[in-house]
Amino acid sequence: MSDAPILDVRNLSVRFRTEGGEVPAVNELSFTLGRGETLAVVGESGSGKSVTSLALMRLLPKDAAVAVTGQALLEGRDLLSIPEAEMRRLRGGAISMVFQEPMTSLNPTTPIGEQVAEAVRLHRGMDGRAAREEAVRLLDLVGIPAARQRLDDYPHHLSGGMRQRVMIAMALSCDPSVLIADEPTTALDVTIQAQILDLLRRLQERTGMAMVFITHNLGVVAEIADRVLVMYGGRAVEQAPLRPLFSRPLMPYTAGLLRSVPRMELAGRRAGPLPAIPGNVPDPRHMPPGCVFHPRCGHHQPGRCDAAAPVLEPADEAREVRCLRWRELAA
Amino acid sequence: MTALVELRELRKWFPIGGGLFRRAQQVKAIDGVTLDIRRGEILSLVGESGSGKTTVGRAILRLLEPTGGTIRFEGQDITHLGRAAMRPLRRRMQLVFQDPFASLNPRHTVERIVAAPLAIQGEGGGRQRVMEALEMVGLQRHHAARYPHELSGGQRQRVGIARALILRPELLVADEPVSALDVSIQAQVVNLLLELKERLGLTILFISHDLSVVGHISDRIAVMYLGRLVEVAETGDLFRTPHHPYTEALLSAAPDPDPDARRRRIILQGDIPSPLDPPPGCAFAGRCRFALDACRAAPPPLREIAPGHLSACIRDDIHLQSPLDEGATYVPAG
């Protein structure tokens, strides 16, 4: 990994204007992504993780209802301000995306070979025959058995896992330096999820692409991430390398989330209730004052945590945390 | 412990594609399931999409007409009972749905939703009983006047559970009741189900694909693959000493939130075969690293391999990995 990040996101904010007022979906989000690195962005509904990925790809509706501010520098070029024509070249080129639901992202009326070949033709200017050959190579690369024979299959002929492989083949068609994967395994069965995670890891080793992997599943994070960004209520609340985050979370939300997931090695012992986080995920329209997590936090101090909003501050090496009390709590 | 529900060779086939001159093909959603649900236990039915786990749940509640086999509820054969004959039994068995958004009528208040089973059974005492049911699931009286869209996902699922409990059923069939919920909310609902089981002496059939939740909540686990049971055991036994290679693969594939347990995963090749054209022998043989010719000849029967531990694998001579193993099967990452 060279030290200059491939992607450098600075103060990204996304606001939706609705009849009920302005809804801040993402607030002042900053992160970097190193070459070949996998950053997992973890969050629950309303955390802003998916809006972030759509903002980076410039796929949010372009109208007065959405305001995107900040910068997202991909090798120096700001994805948020370059002309649309240039963005169109980058999208699916240098930066590419895989979505959660492969059925709705593929065109149901076009054979898969043609869809992959189309991506190759558009971005790499290959002619029909060469593009088709490249489609075979890509489908083969993502583990579609007998790829050549399946070029004329339609998406509905394929299982969910196979469709997701096709999506990945399309996303990889231009050898992206950054792949954004938004819950790419969430709609899949666990044995198929394991196949796709394995595939993404092997492709990454081969191509050196960096990945932003968006998920709500901490098990998947443990499996694939180098570094983790935890989001809550549209904000980054903790950022750390994988291992320290799991072994010593600094933000009470991260700690609570980790504790609330039943551990496999305790199966069958049922040692009392799970340590659940009380309350509900906050509604972005009515964010609590102060720390957005304070109403659910076991460590919150009245008059302090509900009064001042904590900033994201550097903690240990390569870590950041947004909590007024992290020092006391870590002690 | 006595059985509350007994399934014997239960089958549910769905005909598809038949026409005037063409015979319908049969999708064998359930193909010979024999299983007891013991009174007072949480039995989990796990499997991937197409395994038939949801169909089993619906057949027990008689929301589907079985194609063959029998279903007994407290000893009574209910396999082909008609609507009227089922009504008194309905109050004793209730369903909790996966999606708390789709399963609640958006135009009805919480009170009306929760009271609906009372109306169907022609019973009174509505308001008081609704309040009791809401209290039981951790909601407050003021929630009764709310509409579903005013509630969070977790609260909606509590409403679904309150509705299922208002008639004080003995059996709850919970079909993926936490998978649509946020991670931080799942634990709340899992705890609620465990607490209700203790408090009300409920029997719960918990249908799920999430092995870590299943490992926590269940007394016993039944694993399904392509319409058949492949393994049934007490939770600890299943996790510690899986006997069927599909169970092993399923446990191995389950993501565990522990970076130090990045295991050498068993990555299965291929997908679940089509239930339209199931292989003749063991349905898992095509993806199994231990399969022999004998496995492909005839479907292996579910047999007792240890007390209370059933498996449909003919191979007793292999050692399978467990997520509880120390050492060898765990490769420290990094």
TrEMBL record, chain A:
Signal peptide: none annotated. It is found in: Cell inner membrane. This is ABC transporter ATP-binding protein. Residues 9-258 form the ABC transporter domain. Belongs to the ABC transporter superfamily. It is a peripheral membrane protein. GO terms for molecular function: ATP binding. Keywords: ATP-binding, Cell membrane, Membrane, Nucleotide-binding, Transport. The lineage of its organism: Bacteria, Pseudomonadati, Pseudomonadota, Alphaproteobacteria, Acetobacterales.
From TrEMBL, chain B:
It is found in: Cell inner membrane. GO terms for molecular function: ATP binding. It comes from the Bacteria. Its main location: membrane. The keyword Disulfide bond does not apply. Keywords: ATP-binding, Nucleotide-binding, Transport. Residues 5-251 form the ABC transporter domain. SUPFAM superfamilies: P-loop containing nucleoside triphosphate hydrolases (SSF52540). The keyword Nucleotide-binding applies. It is a peripheral membrane protein. Belongs to the ABC transporter superfamily. This is ABC transporter ATP-binding protein.
